[in-house]
Design a protein that fits this description.
This is Good for full DBP5 activity protein 2 like. One of its GO terms (cellular component) is nucleus. Keywords: Coiled coil. Helix 9 packs across helix 13, helix 9 crosses helix 15 and helix 13 packs parallel to helix 15. The protein has two domains: 167 residues, no CATH class; 243 residues, Nucleotidyltransferase, domain 5. The model has no long low-confidence stretch (mean pLDDT 91). A hairpin with a 2-residue loop joins strand 5 and strand 6. With 430 residues, the chain is of the alpha+beta class. The protein is 38% helix and 15% strand.
Length: 430
């Protein structure tokens, strides 16, 4: 198939001499756009299969090159174009060789591959030469004629010349548009991930059914309407470090909710009934218990709102954190056949806290039953459809969760888990 396609001779361009014009209606593809097609228009799955053919785009393929000077900058090298029919033909060859289906994109992006010239008597591309290999291409470029008198656009309106210049710089605009589209797609994918995060938490709390089951109405004064997924334990983690040395861990806050506890308890307004089931912990490192941050945020390590702080020594901290995170999920030693329960770590912008856990030799991936994370910053951003996330205090304020003594690790972990529960409920009823 590919060999047969390569026999196409494009007789309509035979006999043209350098500097000659072709039919005004002929659509052209900018050569720059043709050669950057893989990076701009081929997805990650097909790109490795197609790129080798674009790297050898000049070898064994017939290209009739045309050139056009910029009437406002005649000293610049002219832009090169090929007939669109030849680029489409090349895509068919690649498809036959690679077993894929490349096409010129539809809509506005595709219009850049179908440029027409000569409107309003503006300059048109002139024939440069035919190439079937890289050496041909090099030779004909060296013989590019100087600009013709008609290439200056004399007597052509400024608006028409403006349009021509835009066509000559189509790649620059195409890259901008492609980047804009790529960023929009990336934002959409990120938002879908955030929405999936909310839905996953809702399924684990019995607020949303598993796939294939019809959703029932959620009533905050009634018990959960669906079976819980994964029999999960949520553990919110917040870590406060010294502001001048982030390797110095000052406090660790851990708040835990066993989803078995919510089965027979209606969530209530903002999941307040479920918040009363949370188990709260605050670990204040003994050696640095009097140290507090004050430059960038006002630390309050002695103001834990949810019980009594523990003061483990630094050498005991790792073991205590591991024990708290494993206490509800690790299979009992008396029954080695029993599986670990699912552990979900919760945080507000959790990436930093995961790094701090690693700093104290707590690897989340090695915790019994660890499956993944829930991030309340992402959950709130998805629920409110915000372009960016909010800090914990703002999220709690939006959810009407009263807060005191933020930047105490125990309090922040507590409010993070309360916010997760409220978001899961509000996103099902609002």
């Amino acid at each position: 198939m590919a060999q047969q396609l390569r026999t196409e001779g494009f007789d309509q361009f035979k006999g043209l001499k350098a500097g000659e014009l072709f039919a005004m209606s002929l659509p052209f593809t900018p050569w720059e756009l043709a050669t950057t097609y893989p990076a701009m228009y081929i997805g990650k799955a097909n790109r490795p299969r197609a790129e080798p053919y674009f790297e050898d785009i000049l070898e064994g393929n017939t290209w009739d090159f045309f050139y056009l000077y910029n009437p406002r900058s005649l000293e610049e090298a002219p832009k090169l174009f090929v007939p669109t029919v030849q680029f489409e033909h090349f895509l068919r060859i690649v498809n036959a060789l690679a077993g894929i289906r490349l096409t010129i994109p539809p809509g506005v992006p595709g219009s850049k591959f179908h440029l027409k010239f000569g409107e309003g008597c503006s300059p048109r591309p002139r024939f440069l030469g035919r190439s079937i290999c890289e050496s041909d291409f090099t030779n004909i470029r060296l013989k590019t004629p100087i600009h013709h008198d008609d290439d200056v656009g004399k007597g052509v309106s400024e608006a028409v010349i403006d349009d021509l210049v835009r066509k000559l710089h189509v790649l620059k605009f195409a890259k901008k548009e492609a980047k804009k589209e790529k960023n929009a797609k990336r934002r959409e994918e990120a938002n879908m991930r955030r929405l999936d995060g909310i839905r996953s938490v809702q399924r684990m709390l019995g607020l949303r059914p598993v796939a294939g089951v019809s959703a029932r109405q959620v009533d905050i004064e009634q018990v959960i309407p669906h079976d819980r997924e994964l029999d999960a334990v949520f553990a919110a983690v917040d870590i406060e470090v010294a502001e001048e040395s982030h390797s110095v861990i000052l406090e660790v806050g851990i708040s835990i909710l066993d989803t078995r506890e919510v089965v027979n308890v209606p969530p209530g307004i903002n999941a307040q009934n479920w918040s009363s089931l949370i188990e709260y912990h605050h670990l204040l490192v003994y050696e640095t218990r009097f140290q507090r941050n004050y430059k960038y945020c006002h630390g309050c390590p002695d103001a834990f709102n949810f019980g009594t702080s523990e003061t483990p020594r630094l050498g005991e901290l790792t073991g205590r954190v591991r024990a708290l995170l494993a206490q509800h999920t690790a299979a009992p030693a008396s029954n080695p056949m029993q599986r670990n329960r699912t552990l979900i770590l919760v945080g507000h912008d959790i990436a930093a806290d995961l790094n701090y856990l690693q700093d104290i030799d707590v690897n989340p991936g090695q915790l019994p039953g660890f499956l993944g994370c829930a991030d309340t910053k992402d959950m709130h951003q998805a629920w409110r459809s915000c372009p960016s996330g909010c800090n914990l205090g703002a999220v709690c304020g939006d959810l009407e969760i009263p807060t005191r003594n933020l930047h105490n690790a125990g309090n922040d972990a507590a409010y993070t888990l309360q916010a997760m529960l409220a978001l899961a409920v509000r996103a099902r009823i609002d």
